[in-house]
Amino acid sequence: MLALADFKGEWRISREITDRLTGNAGRLEGTATFTDDAPDTLLYEERGRLRLGDGPEMEATRRYRWHFADGRVDMTFDDRSAFHSFVPHGYVSGTDHQCGDDAYAVRYDFIPWPRWRAVWVVTGPRKDYTSVTEFTR
Q1: DSSP, res 7
Q2: Would you write out the chain's pLDDT as a tens digit for each of its 137 residues?
Q3: Which residue of 43, 65, 99, 124 is 20 to 30 Å from 8, comparing CA positions?
Q4: Of 85, 10, 94, 76, nearest in space to 46 by CA
């Protein structure tokens, strides 16, 4: 089972986005940094360059908090509202997240550690896409 210390530091990220509503593809290249935030908690900060379809390249950022407890990670948004939870081990689904009428489902793959992957499938009346993010040191 992976622990807080295993994630700390900087990771290169590469994300492919397939939008089934628009037919466009997107790509993000950047970094994700995990730093100490509170006891048993890491702050996840993501920065990268994102291009969607033929649109202009833009800067993209995200922040989450990862709290490690009882063999799982409870992830919250930057404002500390609940997002989802998962067990950092093997090939595993996280808990689903409902955002209005849109549903977010994630599957993590930690098997090739220290590389790992997060695959999000988002469906609903306003969204229909898959996002695959690869993390490498």
Answers
A1: H
A2: 999 999 999 999 999 999 999 999 999 999 999 999 999 999 999 999 999 999 999 999 999 999 999 999 999 999 999 999 999 999 999 999 999 999 999 999 999 999 999 999 999 999 999 999 999 99
A3: 99
A4: 10
Element (H, E) at 48: strand 41-52
For 34-45, give one letter per residue: b (16+ CB within 10 A) or e: beeeeeebbebb
Instruction: Find where tokens 């920065």 sit.
Output: 47
C-alpha closest to that of 108 among 70, 81, 60, 72: 72
Those residues whose C-beta lies under 8 Å from the C-beta of residue 132, and which sit 6 or more positions away, are 15, 16, 17, 117, 118, 119, 120
Would you mind telling me the total number of residues written for the chain in this entry?
137
Residue 102 and residue 3: Cα distance in Å, rounded? 31
Cβ atoms of 116 and 2 within 8 Å: the answer is no
